[in-house]
Amino acid sequence: MTTSIQSTALEPDRSLDGDAATLVQRLTRAMPVYGLVVLTVSLAVLFSVMLPDTFPTLFNLRAILADKSVIAILALAATIPMITGKIDLTVGYGIVFWHILAISLQTEFGIPWPLAVALVIACAGLFGMLNGLLVEMAQIDSFIATLGTGTVIYAVAMWHSGGRQVVGELPDGFVEIAGGNFLGLPMGAYYVLVVSVVMWLVTEFTPSGRALYIIGANPKAAQLNGIAVRKHVMSAFVASGALSGFAGVLLASRLQIGQASVGLEFLLPALVGAFLGSTTIRPGRVNVWGTLVGVAILAIGISGIQQFGGAFFVEPLFNGLTLLVSIGIAGWAQQRRNQSIKRRIAERQLNDAPPCSPSTAG
Length: 362
Description:
Helix content: over 70%
Number of strands: 2
Order of helices and strands: HHHHHHHEEHHHHHHH
Structural class: mainly alpha
Strand content: under 5%
Number of helices: 14
Largest sheet: 2 strands, antiparallel
Shape: globular
Strand order of the largest sheet: 1-2
Low-confidence stretches: 1-5, 8-17
């Protein structure tokens, strides 16, 4: 069983944490919760001041939203199984095949674009079910299982495309899926918003969503309490697969060509965004809005660095370092809080202990 992140949020508990008497204590307690949000805003302000002609512009905002919408969808897809303590690497491998399939179904088989989109998302969902079966039925570690199936589907993408670009005349309706604009912003941004709101409502306000978090925190306890662990974990992989299929459709609509060399570069940013999401808003607990903040800090940081003339290796370097630093800060904050709680429990037990009566003489 792969447990990537336990669903135990660093939420204040006055009965254990005590009251924050000073401003420094309140800031220290809020840092793990909102520190990444503050850092994101600070980066945006910094780059706006240093690059006033290029960074704080509507053109740059549109470019960031258009470029990172696919990564945001993939990060949200990775978030779903991560809530249950599982990792799904096929969000990065699968998009290679899904965007090629979305184009080839139309150009080579003449399938209407609405049906092609539906078929791609359905196939991606079935592929997610396969991952769920391997993890829950065959009891294969989720990292190993999805690495294996991801490599296989990447090979299928190479075979299907013959290592060449898949090109052809695409209908305007399909191109407008990602190429259109609404109120001056690319459609991809609205897809991300809709998916985020739906995921937030499901994970935070439905029994199924709460069950996913319980499974991520302690699967054995969840099973003992009557939660269908296997069904929920498999459903998480199916949802993750279907969402990655939709991301493949967006990528195909945006690029209008299919090629096996495109897609794998989305894997690390998507996973980094999901992991970063566990360090903010509700630190220690994978959450939807935290994932979006994680993607935002990557998008803003990389955009600013590239406008300064950063080299081609800056993006993966920034992604990796940001992941390590953020996970390290979250781990440090969790340890500090655990130590504080243990100390206060010990003090409470000492205060509640009855005084020892003096022994009577002989």
